[in-house]
Amino acid sequence: MNVNRKVLTLDEFTIQQLRMFPNATGELSNLLRDMGLAAKRVNVEVNKAGLVDILGDAGTINVQGEDVKKLDIFANNQFMGVLRHGISCAGIGSEEMDEFVVFDDEISNNSKYVCLFDPLDGSGNIDVNVSIGTIFSVYRRVSERGKPCTKEDFLQPGRKQVAAGYIVYGSSTMMVYATRRGVNGFTLDPSIGEFTLSHPDIKCPESGKVYSVNHGNFFQYEDRVKAYIDACQKKNRDNGGPYTQRYIGSMVADVHRNLIKGGIFMYPTTIDKPKGKLRLLYECNPFAFIVEVAGGRATNGKQRILDIQPTELHQRSSLFIGSKNMMDELDTYLNQ
Ligand code: AHG
Fold this sequence. Notes:
Layout (H helix, E strand, L loop, with lengths): L9 H10 L7 H21 L9 E5 L5 E3 H16 L3 E6 L6 E2 L3 H4 L3 E9 L10 E9 L10 H4 L6 E9 L3 E7 L2 E8 L4 E6 L10 E3 L10 H11 L10 E2 L5 H11 L2 E4 L10 E2 H14 L3 E3 L16 E2 L1 E4 L1 H11 L2
Parallel strand pairs: 3-5, 11-12, 11-13
Antiparallel strand pairs: 1-2, 3-4, 5-6, 6-7, 7-8, 8-9, 9-10, 13-17, 14-16, 15-17
Helix pairs in contact: 1-2, 2-3
């Protein structure tokens, strides 16, 4: 059989990166490979969602007051499980869980990192076969190694992330992750069951033609946000347009498209959700890190997302994220 040695798997890529740093311990590479393994398990179940009884509400309400679907629970257990049994992670925080979890054993207490994740984002789209995703972020712990991790490890500003990534379960399944050195995308090759490097060194185009926002909330947005959305709709050939509106309702899919093709994604505050809908730690911070490393920008409308000091695990935030020039243009409206 011919094996294409030019195509690197996720495991080969992380090992290759590790070899560039002779003093590295390999803990981050291990953690990223663990995430890839859990993603493959979740992908199998997501693919079967229309076939088996795993589909549908689990009948409980999560800490955000939202219905929990069975696949959310399955995904949560998979990601928590690989990290618990790995050697790199001292504890986790999950969008599905009220409190963070400390893996209080000797190996975990000596681990360097903590991980936060949203195991299945866009879960409202499961029942209708629309793309959903997983989002994660990795921080170096600030608590003393050798002891259980603490809440302070999880409440670090986003700029302290060591790595962040997402998996999009879509027409193909992709894992994209960023470290300070760059953003790389891996597509799951079903023939070998491995993520393979398909999008090396992703850069977010400086400009784009797509704006993504829930238009149904338009009359609940602040006037300055409405003015920007109006301007997006009035774009024509003479002023850099036309712009196109695209909104899937799965942030992972929406931001993934805009990261690759250029665009802006917005989830502003509304009258009903004065603090915003998206979670700072599980959704905004990881995407802000990825998009900034790729050359884009992310703010809450007033402040860089990555500079916000979190005070609670399940804190919400407004979010504006995307191509640099589009974000700069948005600022001219928000600063008026
Ligand atoms: P959930 O996981 O509860 O379905 O939330 C999805 C998130 C995010 O992925 C998406 O962009 C946004 O909520 C959509 O919210 P609206 O339906 O309010 O536009």
